[in-house]
Design a protein that fits this description.
The chain is an alpha/beta fold. 36% of the residues lie in helices and 20% in strands. It has 14 helices and 18 strands. The radius of gyration is 22 Å and the shape is globular. The two termini are 18 Å apart.
Length: 433
């Protein structure tokens, strides 16, 4: 239905044309084949881009991709004219809370939010996420398993949203980060944590998130403190890996991160105070970093002011900012695996763009090439998820998750600021081409 509306919008010059187009689109719908023609396909391996390309989409996958003339377009295929546009894989944001509640005003407004209301708010945010060009997200902490219900609804076509990989509910210890949130269960000792880990896995979580240091948004321990014991960390990671489930850790702390990386941790969130030896160890072990640099970057101050954040939060955020930025610079220098994540809603308006586009821009300012930053938001994120055979690049056989831009993002990452087309699984959700 949406695809039809989008195409109708493009040709309003005459009623006759409109009727004809509607009919032809309906036919194409039946055939389920779309050809995106005329655009330039960006090569994520840094090779030459494909100019005047054809991407043939059959059902929800890319059926063929190549220069015009080298790909047969079946009769009746719907055509999307991407002339002058640059085509990249759908963006991926690896640190998202669709039900995010920030301290201050939001907490006051949502203190009695029901689980049903939460799910609906998350569904609305999922739709906005998708329209912002983000076709895959990893959820790093949700409430009441609304995340998993939403994931299933999206997969069934009952709701519009990105592909979701979720860590379910975070695993926190008594007195730790987030432990005092109303209704939040805390777990202490390896036995309780193993039980909690398996409970999340049983509910459908494909990741687990442990909170091993303090955080900015709560008073549960210092950012540099190693709050969880090595035995607790090891127990969760072992329990998760036995089910093929990966573990990420909220950590600002070099000490906590060192313990967790030795225990086989897969990924570190934020990494506020990470030092060079810790980053070298992460590089050695192949541990991922999801920087969420928009959380502390000075340029996002207006966002936090708009959210009505309390002074204590602003103080914690600003005091962490310099070291967080330095940690990101060093992680890039050391070649640590980095996947993009924001800890803000992917579509959150920020500095004239979205949090996702701004995060990528900061990676370039911190030392990445535009191509590296683009990769962190696409194929590298797919590698983090071990889903690189399905998503993360524009290749035959992969899901047709495609975004069009008006500039070459490998020349200027700010190209991500202007999203012209969003296709997920072969379906067009937004078309401003
Ligand atoms: Zn977070």
């Amino acid at each position: 239905m949406r695809r039809r509306e989008v195409n109708i919008n493009r040709v309003l010059s005459s009623t006759v044309v409109l009727i004809f187009l509607t009919a032809s689109v309906l036919t194409a719908h039946a055939a389920g084949t779309t050809a995106i023609v005329g655009g330039t396909v960006v090569d994520l391996a840094g090779k030459a881009s494909i100019k005047n390309a054809v991407i043939l989409v059959a059902g929800d996958r890319i059926a063929a991709i190549g220069k015009a003339g080298s790909v047969d377009i079946p009769e009746g295929a719907q055509q999307v004219d991407a002339g002058g546009a640059w085509l990249i894989p759908g963006l991926m944001n690896m640190h998202v809370h669709l039900g995010l509640v920030m301290p201050g005003r939001m907490t006051a407004e949502l203190h009695d939010e029901s689980e049903a209301a939460l799910a609906l708010r998350m569904a609305a945010n999922a739709r906005e996420t998708l329209l912002a060009g983000v076709t895959t997200i990893r959820l790093t902490g949700s409430r009441a398993h609304a995340d998993l219900a939403l994931m299933r609804a999206i997969n069934k076509g009952q709701a519009d949203g990105p592909r979701i990989f979720s860590a379910g509910e975070t695993l926190t210890i008594t007195a730790g980060h987030g432990s005092k949130k109303p209704g939040k269960r805390n777990y202490d000792g390896p036995d309780e944590l193993v039980k909690a880990a398996r409970t999340q896995i049983s509910a459908g979580a494909k990741w687990l998130k442990i909170l091993i240091s303090g955080g900015i948004a709560t008073d549960g321990g210092g950012l540099a403190a190693a709050l969880m014991t090595p035995g607790e960390i090891q127990a969760v990671i072992d329990a998760a890996h036995r089910f093929g489930v990966k573990v990420t850790a909220h950590s600002g702390s070099p000490a906590a991160t060192n313990i967790a990386v030795d225990a086989g941790l897969d990924c570190v969130e934020h990494g506020y105070f990470l030092d060079r030896p810790t980053l070298k160890k992460m590089k050695e072990h192949g541990t991922w970093l999801v920087p969420t640099i928009v959380v502390t970057a000075p340029g996002t101050q207006p966002f936090f002011e708009r959210m009505g954040m309390p002074p204590w939060y602003m103080e914690r955020r600003n005091s962490a900012g310099k070291l967080h930025w330095r940690a990101l610079e060093m992680a890039i220098e050391e070649g640590v695996n980095i996947a993009l994540g924001t800890d803000q809603l992917p579509h959150e308006p920020n500095d004239g763009t979205t949090a996702t586009a701004l995060e990528a821009q900061y990676y370039v300012e911190a030392g990445m090439t535009p191509l590296q930053a683009l990769r962190s938001a696409t194929i590298e994120a797919a590698r983090l998820l071990e889903a690189e055979d399905e998503i993360g690049s524009l290749e035959t056989g992969k899901y047709a998750d495609i975004v069009a831009l008006d500039k070459d993002p490998t020349q200027d990452i700010r190209a991500l600021r202007n999203i012209l087309l969003v296709m997920k699984g072969g379906k067009v959700y937004r078309n401003n081409l």
